[in-house]
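Hey, sorry to bother you again with one of my protein questions. I've been puzzling over a protein and I'd love to understand its fold better. Take your time with it, there's no hurry, and the full record follows here:
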Amino acid sequence: MRWFVGGCALVLATLTVPTAQTPGTPTRPLTPVEQAAKALNEGRYDEVDAILKGQQDPLVPGLRAKAAIARGRYADAEAVLKAPAAASPTGDPALQLGLLQMLLGRRDEAQRTLRRVADAGAPRTAADYARMAMASRALGEYKDANDLYRNATRLAPDDPVINTAWGELFLEKYDRPEALKSFQAALKVDATYVPARLGLATVAAAGNPPAAKEAIDEALKLNPNSVTAHLLVAEMALDDRRRDDAREAIDKALKVNPKSLDALSLRAAVDFVEGKQTDFETHAKEALAINPRYGDVFRVAGDHAARNYLFDEAVAMTRRAIEIDDANATAHANLGMHLLRTGDEPAARRSLERAFKDDPFNVVTFNSLALLDSLDKFQTVQDGDLIFRFHPDEVTVMREHAIPLAKEAFAALIKRYGFTPKGPILIEMFPKHDDFAVRTLGLPGMVGALGACFGRVVTLDSPKARKPGEFHWGETLWHELAHVMTLQMSNNRVPRWLTEGASVWEERRGRPEWGRESDFTFLQALDAGKTMKLENLNDGFSDPRTISLAYYQASLLVEHIVDTYGEQGFHKLLRAYGQGLEDEVALKDALGVNWAGLQASFDKRIDQDYGAQLKALKGPELKEKMPLDELKILAAANAGSVMVQMALGQALVAAKDPDGALAAFERAAALLPRAGGRGNPHAMIARVSLEKKDTERAIKALEASLLIDPSDVEAARQLAGLIAVKGNDTATEAAYRRIVGIDPFDSPSQTQVGRLAFKRKDNAAALRAFKSALATQPPDRAAAHTDLGEALLASGDAAEAKKQTLEALEIAPSFERAQDLLLKLAE
């Protein structure tokens, strides 16, 4: 939603809101004009006329008009502005009149009025530059506006109004870092300036909702009648699916300004996402009665439809916005993003190119077009209803790994859910994380995200997007494909707690070691009393401090629902949401329970599953550098405390007592078998066992550790090395397969998998591994070509086998294996 609608910094370009006097300086009474400015900043709009009665200051008309606009009294504001605007067609009243005309959809009039202001020429003061900048911005001349703001701040670097207005321009173009600088500069001078505080909140809302809520609360303390603040509250409530709270905040905004187009649009958007089509059309008409060209009423509905996974509906709504106002560059840009999420990349490009033509300064549009240019170079591989897009440097390897895994996941999910999703499903894998982020949201970042699903489109990091061991791409792919099922089964109306919880739970069903990385984090939160109430679980996904916990707790809740009410109960719940029912009603309809009842049974289950582990976290406080004898006594008295046992084990390692250390670590592992992270009990057992050359014990410990952290590629490599020397081909191949499952670009491991598969005459598996090994640019390319040639010959492809053999001999003419293979081919 655009927050610039005849906004807060439009009147006071030459007047800073008065702040507290510096301590020790003489105070003076505020002038009536300063009193009025302060009243506006604090939302005391009805007091402004009385304060300014009889005043002749040239700023008076603008202040009175702003008070009227804030209450939706647009005709009164226009009456106040007309005469002074005519008398001074390049002054503040003319600027405000033009912005008001634009707000009301009288675009031709507005452009004439604003053009005179923007072309005033010969600016001398910061206020002159700022006035021209505001007019230029409203006319869509963003580069000029930016240059003018730069000049304005050069003359008045400490003006909070000008800095805030410049920040709002950056914010409109998604340049959040620059917007943040401007808002911070404004607040450094005047911490009470409400528009700057709300600008700060809007920036924070994208990545730090708790900070945004704090900034909004501060703004509402200063100005309880701020329409923008109330609508920000509503936006954040909608992100958490708290629609009743959103409606309450919207009602507060409309009480202040019954004709606020932003508020009317947001109210209509809530109706739309709730499926109340008649109410939506009624409320949309209210906005259009004020401004017949206000396509944003449909654009905002489309935006919120997309934020609620309703991407096809978002496309339809945004097209309605464009039908009303084809000049709305933001609507064209939004349509492009929505089309990307439906998988229609050619149509998305057309919309984004139109948006870029009209507004080349929108960062999201620019980024998305650049990303589409990169995607044009990707290679497309289709297998049934699955369409993969791979980077050309990765296609040879990833097609051999991602496609079989996706097919396995899809087959398992379709069988479990008894539902075949609408295809085709587009899956795009990106070797650069920021490319994934831009494909997903239009902006780089999304630091903690690994993948995203839009119902028929999946985007994710490829294994090369992060260092090997940081994540498991296969786990991510399975997770996102599970979203395809829950989104489509619920008509894309599933709440986030349920779809994310189901996807993490499905990870565990896909592979027993997946989806458990946050188990210990959950246990610690449980011990600290910081787990979330189930009815507030959705809120946890909006807070960076709790998002990991929310994912895992939601997965435990889904598992509990399935165990208690069966798979059919879980599926019925998805369909209940698909019918437009919300949490309490959906739970009652599908499961016959409310939140309170579900909370009670969930708590009971958690007590059963985690009670013993919670006890293991307890124990006495450990003193620093406790003597070993004293620690042994403490450990004997606290055999059930994992922290004491771990401390004893580490002390015994330092004391060169490996047997004693192993005993302590194994007691800790028995107490908390799923404790993860570096230095977990299993990792310590492996380390000490290796020092003792106890290979069997080390193997068991590493296997246990990998069941907790399946992406730990170093542990997997260490395990494979230990197993390989034992001569068990089956176990060795499984160990190397685990490595390439984490890092498909590990050439030595691919080679080992291929040779072991070839040895047992599984030529198809050998070919996949050898092709992957060769594609990773191995150090011994002659051997890699020969490996592939041997497998090709065994598969009956003599022509391609000869080609690979000749490649090997070109690299190493005396390579005996390649020479022998060539002779065999000749025979």
